[in-house]
Amino acid sequence: MRSKPKWLFPVLALLPVLGLYACLRVYPIAETLRLSLFKWNIISRRKPFVGFDNFVELMSDPLFLEAIFNTTIVAFGVLVITIPVGLALAALINSRQGLRRSGFYETSIFLPHVVSLVPAAMAWKWIFDARLGPLNALIGWFGIPAQSWLFDPALSLVCLIVLCSWQSIGYAVLIFLVGLKNVPEALYEAARLDGASSFQAFRYVAIPLLKPVMLYVSVITLISSYNIYAQAFVLASDVQGAPGHLVRVLVLDMLENSFRNYRVGYAAAEAVVLLVIVLVLTGAQFRLFRDRSRA
């Protein structure tokens, strides 16, 4: 009797998972690509094929361009803060002085990442409040005048970057800690024998070995930052809960075009542009870290 090939069982075992992944991931992406080529209006029966007209219109839409600009500023701002701060905190926790209470520090730093987005954004909205917020009271002690944090476009971008960084740093610290704990102690000892200080050992021993971890954290942070919605929505909403658009981000613009303006095809085109941006930036990060590893 002919024996079955060895690959048959793992393939059959993976088929349900692959089928579920295709339904939840591949099909929505393909359907979004299809919808972006139509003038798809929810309340209209006629949905004509328009080709790339939606994409052409996007390039001259000031609201879309503003959303792309704001989202890019926030995403790279969060990335620039999260990577160095997360790595520094992970190094402090992993040090000999921090190991005694590492569990407490890890929990405290990781907690913002698991807190629900809306309550966290509401808490930060109170912190940034121009009249009652503690932030203005704090800077007042140093003689700095009170700021309208959430009513100034530039300051509101800063507030959004601070909020998103606060939520993403905990995850970065956890991943960096895993990488630091896997660095062999013998490499540190060899560096010390060569006369390297603790900082030099960390700089020339740990960081090169952490490049794959840094690549992962960088990619995840940038993707999640480009998909922000709840934070911007809550910070810009008024007391009665009415939505605001002081900081217009890309996902917020997509949802507004879909469910308020009923332009599903146009919003699908925005989603395709977001997908392309994420793919290009992810590829650029892989290329950057690969070139540095070779160097």
Automatic annotation (TrEMBL):
Its membrane topology: Multi-pass membrane protein
Pfam families, sorted: BPD_transp_1 (PF00528)
Database matches in InterPro entries: ABC_transporter_permease (IPR051393), MetI-like (IPR000515), MetI-like_sf (IPR035906)
BP terms from Gene Ontology: transmembrane transport
UniProt keyword list: Cell membrane, Membrane, Transmembrane, Transmembrane helix, Transport
One GO CC term, this protein: plasma membrane
Family affiliation: Belongs to the binding-protein-dependent transport system permease family.
Compartments where located: Cell membrane
Domain named ABC transmembrane type-1: residues: 68-285
Keyword Transmembrane helix: yes
The species this protein was found in: Bradyrhizobium rifense
Ranges that cross the membrane: 7-30, 67-92, 104-127, 154-180, 201-223, 264-284
Chief place of localization: membrane
Protein name as annotated: Sugar ABC transporter permease
SUPFAM superfamilies on file: MetI-like (SSF161098)
